[in-house]
Amino acid sequence: MLKITAARVIVTCPGRNFVTLKIETSDGVYGIGDATLNGRELAVASYLNDHVIPCLIGRDAHQIEDIWQYLYKGAYWRRGPVTMSAIAAVDMALWDIKAKVANLPLYQLLGGACRTGVMVYGHANGASIEETLDNAAAYAEQGYKAIRLQSGVPGLKTVYGVSKDRFFYEPADAALPSESVWSTEKYLRSVPPLFEAAREKLGWDVHLLHDVHHRLTPIEAGRLGRDLEPYRPFWMEDATPAENQANFRLIRQHTTTPLAVGEVFNSIWDCKQLIEEQLIDYIRATVVHAGGITHLRRVAAFADMHGVRTGCHGATDLSPICMAAALHFDLSIPNFGIQEYMRHTAETDAVFPHAYSFEDGMLHPGEAPGLGVDIDEALAAKYPYSRAYLPVARREDGSMHDW
Ligand code: KDG
Ligand code: MG
């Protein structure tokens, strides 16, 4: 038995907040897991400290599935982002430990590599179409095979997905949520010209993606998807809020643009109908918010039966630990589609030294045993938690809009 002897939560803010769980074992091997839930970080830290860690001490670190079931079924209160992020952190740390004990990179324990690397997409954005496409051209020059395009909307001061920096994007930018004004009409007019200009400038050999960020109704999303069809986007993401999974039937009836959804999902039950009825093409649930590697593998296997591929969320609020976990997962499953890759800042990379690397539009998790990522606790301690929230959106008449 490999006994769990200690576990602790490390909260750090090297440019943005991250929550990390570190689990130690009787033979000295430790594992780490990401528990970051953007804007609700301390809720997960408390869930782990106050309710999970006391139940872990003394258990066998090798019993990953049993511990997952124990934390999921045993708590009585199932699902939800706080619970599932906490379970995910435990799960990642335990897989890290198991692979370190085996002296293998984690993907080998997950069945070995199905591909040579993981195709990623980068984020190009700008205040205008021209600026966005200059940015996209810079990504293409760096070897990216897939690029997400978000552009400022004429008539709106700020828009989701458009940052101040060319290569770093951090949407949680204020100690209390800032307010932005939203107009669906203005937005819908702005996206097709962006994609038309993108194909003219970038050609047809690069995948182009777009994130709607839940801002449209199903019929509006159907119209946008249809308008984008001539430019063959790789996907239209989060077209409409997905609490009501049946909403996607309406979008599907109106467009052949591939649909991706699920970065806010935390359970297979959030996407059961979407996958079963083949209402989507890519499932975006990710390791940290969807119950860890153990649960995400279940989601991927179910998706594979229905012709749905993965496209894991990979924004800056998912720590390098989650990125490493996602890459091992991506490399090992048959129905991988694409992986989002928003680069972290140099400060974040220094706190989380990692073995994964980017080359020619692809990421590879590297060959270090375990997840191949560590946390420099002394450095992490120099960056105390600093509350930061995503902005909220209101329509031009002042009413709240979907994020
Ligand atoms: O925490 C929220 C961000 O991760 C999200 O706004 C980023 O939509 C996003 C994306 O696709 O990366
Ligand atoms: Mg998104």
From TrEMBL:
GO biological process: amino acid catabolic process; carbohydrate catabolic process
UniProt-recorded Gene Ontology molecular function terms: magnesium ion binding; mannonate dehydratase activity
Keywords: Carbohydrate metabolism, Lyase, Magnesium, Metal-binding
Cofactor: Mg(2+)
PROSITE patterns found in the cross-reference section: MR_MLE_1
Alphabetical list of Pfam families matching this protein: MR_MLE_C (PF13378), MR_MLE_N (PF02746)
EC number(s) from the headed UniProt entry: 4.2.1.8
The reaction(s) this protein catalyses: D-mannonate = 2-dehydro-3-deoxy-D-gluconate + H2O
Pathway membership: Carbohydrate metabolism; pentose and glucuronate interconversion
Ranges for domain Mandelate racemase/muconate lactonizing enzyme C-terminal: 129-258
Its biological purpose: Catalyzes the dehydration of D-mannonate. Has no detectable activity with a panel of 70 other acid sugars (in vitro).
Family assignment from sequence similarity: Belongs to the mandelate racemase/muconate lactonizing enzyme family. GalD subfamily.
Entries under NCBIfam families matching the protein: ManoateDhtManD (NF043051), PRK15072.1 (NF011654)
PANTHER family registered for this protein in UniProt: D-GALACTONATE DEHYDRATASE-RELATED, STARVATION-SENSING PROTEIN RSPA
Name of the molecule in the record: mannonate dehydratase
Lineage of origin: Bacteria, Pseudomonadati, Pseudomonadota, Alphaproteobacteria, Caulobacterales
